[in-house]
Amino acid sequence: MMTVRKPNKNNRPEGFGDAEDLNRVAARYAVRVTPAVYEAMQAAAADDPVARQYLPDTRELEDGAGETPDPIGDGAHSPVSGIVHRYPDRVLLMPALHCAVYCRYCFRREKVGRDEAVLPDEKLAAALDYIRGDENIKEVILSGGDPLILSPRRLAGIFTALEEIAHVEIIRIHSRVPVADPQRITKQLCAVLEGSAKPVYLAVHVNHAQELTRDAEKSLKKLHAAGCVLLSQSVLLKGVNDDADTLETLFRALVRLRVKPYYLHHPDRAAGTAHFRVTLAEGREIMRILQSRLSGICRPVYMLDIPGGYGKVAVDPCRLHSAGKNAYHIEDIHGNTHFYAQE
Ligand code: SF4
């Protein structure tokens, strides 16, 4: 049986640095852990894959090479407050910049958990006007912060406004809440989601199977019952999930819970997160192994957000190599190469 090493009043989390430096981390970046996350930890120690995601670490005080406050260039694509419009057919709408928990590798860590945490009514109205004014926008992605931190009443108001915009076809929600704070998935919230006149896709943010506690599973079942199409997004994180076995376990568990693994993100260059970063070559090798083991239903797409605001691209390993005009060498899942020529 595993030894549980959780802190009590006589000890502190292990391996994250000394108390004085940790206070400096907390002064710079928001810190919050829910009882659900605490329960998901097997040890409040840096070698625990859940603790490592949420407990502050003094290495966050070190700004690494290439790290910036806005690693994916949101600012360059924000025409009005609360909107990021990077791709023609979809926008991010960010009604809240606070979260149930604060992930130590967050790419918006310079913005979340600050004073103006909820978009004021007049700015929300201007953001909705922006969406109303562009008929190319087919999909609105509620992001943040975490949109499921909002009250069901406030969320219902946003849904109503989006439902009245004819060219918006899909509402998507990105949230950590179903796993990190499952008690927030209430009947009232599910009623809002179920009552939506437009399809609701919900991308659950989860990085390790250990986070899928009994309560998290129940929350996902409720969301499925409320008619949400469930997807997952994960971040590839050193010391958390940077091996094929760990990710295989996570993705298989998600599929059993009716959640389609959607994206595996290469970690962004957010300030103070170098200790989480794997190389692109390491990530591609993990995906190469997973391609051999998992069906397409279980396998997410490995994505890189190009620094500077140039958008996301798939960086899955390529098994196709040119062998002349209209001819290719194609590698099978066992690593054997086959010649394929276009007739
Ligand atoms: S829930 Fe999302 S926005 Fe909030 S801290 Fe975690 S990664 Fe960042």
Number of domains: 1
Q: What is the H level of CATH, i.e. the homologous superfamily? A: Aldolase class I
Q: What is the annotated CATH architecture?
A: Alpha-Beta Barrel
Separate helix tally: 10
Shape verdict: globular
CATH topology label? TIM Barrel
CATH secondary-structure class? Alpha Beta
Question: What does this molecule look like?
Answer:
- The chain is of the alpha/beta class.
- The chain has a single domain (62-317), classed as Aldolase class I (TIM Barrel, Alpha-Beta Barrel), CATH 3.20.20.70.
- It is 28% helix and 18% strand.
- The protein is built from ten helices and twelve strands.
- Strands 1-2-3-4-5-6-7-8-9 form a nine-stranded mixed beta sheet.
- 39% of the residues are buried.
- The model has no long low-confidence stretch (mean pLDDT 93).
- The site of iron/sulfur cluster has 11 residues, from loops.
- Iron/sulfur cluster binds at residues 99, 102-103, 106, 108, 112, 144-146, 176, 205.
Question: Which descriptors would you attach to this protein?
Answer:
3-stranded antiparallel sheet; 343 residues; TIM Barrel; binds iron/sulfur cluster; 28% helix; 12 strands
